[in-house]
Amino acid sequence: MIIDLRSDTVTKPTKRMLEAMMSARVGDDVFREDPTVNELEERLAKMFGKEKALFFPSGSMANQIAIKLHTNPGEQVICDKYAHIYNYEVGGVAFHSAASCKLIDGNRGMFTAEQVIEAINPPEYYYSQSSLVEVENTTNKGGGACWDFKEFENIKKVCKANNLGFHIDGARIWNAMVAKNETTLQYGNVFDTISVCLSKGLGCPVGSVLIGDEDIMKQSLSLRKLFGGNMRQIGYLATAGLYALDNNIERLADDHKRAKEIGEVLSKLQIIKKIEPIETNIVIFELNDDVDETQFLNNLNEKNIRIIGMGSNKLRMVTHLDYTDQMHDKLMGVLKSL
Ligand SMILES: *Cc1c(COP(=O)(O)O)cnc(C)c1O
């Protein structure tokens, strides 16, 4: 038994999800003739109260195309220094959109409307024009932290007053909604574009969806083609998405509960300096200076436990659909013995 807590992306489709995929109705999506992907897109658009949704092979592509939709070359995206779009998408903001990022020094990947106001460039011709505010919920590098929804509403007002687009990277938006009891319509009401992942907590093998109204999404289909992201019989994947929306959202609360239990055990260990507050399914902790990170990881590896190092003695565990009760019991035992 291997306990893999490196990411919630390591899950494999369950038998029932696979069965649903095997019986999917499919067609050529480049002709927009795949009935199941059309159904998934319509359903997600409706869930968020938007006019349009488009399926993507990855969350990075959905985010990068959102940025392209909101910016012109030379313009600037306001985001947190922890943002996935800035740190983990290969500098795509510069590469694909010829735009730059103005980084906010936030708290665990989150910031305030006042900080957005400070980050907006003055109108003089020699500044880069600020055109988009980008946030992430939950925050990945911030340890699965959830925003206070009020702050989104405050930032929305600033965006409106300054003619800025507002995009949310919702790779783990489902975790935030379950943890904070929020609704998809609330998000649709505040954001211009929303990217959601089906392949993280929801357990699909592939898939992200970008959601927004027609006016902003007009170029999304041709941009997806330009980025090389058009696909054919993707109903097989869209079926997994539909299955996950029906079956795998509420259960995220179990992942959150287990992450908190892991955190409680870690907090009693001598070798650990600090644990980030645990709100969802991500546990980030820091080892004491005298503990060797590589040795610690190897020690767990020998016990068939895989977790990930984030540099500077920080480590990450992520709970997910394939992390069973049996694995949880074993992990708790091993952690207690450290
Ligand atoms: C995983 C993730 C993405 C998208 O990742 P892909 O691997 O490209 O699907 C985007 N944003 C955040 C915060 C993520 O954690």
From TrEMBL:
Pfam families: Beta_elim_lyase. InterPro entries: ArAA_b-elim_lyase/Thr_aldolase (IPR001597), Low_specificity_L-TA-like (IPR023603), PyrdxlP-dep_Trfase (IPR015424), PyrdxlP-dep_Trfase_major (IPR015421), PyrdxlP-dep_Trfase_small (IPR015422). The modification N6-(pyridoxal phosphate)lysine is found at K200. Residues 4-287 form the Aromatic amino acid beta-eliminating lyase/threonine aldolase domain. SUPFAM superfamilies: PLP-dependent transferases. One of its GO terms (cellular component) is cytosol. Its cofactor is pyridoxal 5'-phosphate. It comes from the Bacteria. GO terms for biological process: glycine biosynthetic process; L-threonine catabolic process. Keywords: Lyase, Pyridoxal phosphate. One of its GO terms (molecular function) is L-allo-threonine aldolase activity. Belongs to the threonine aldolase family. NCBIfam families: GntG_guanitoxin. This is Threonine aldolase. It comes from Winogradskyella endarachnes.
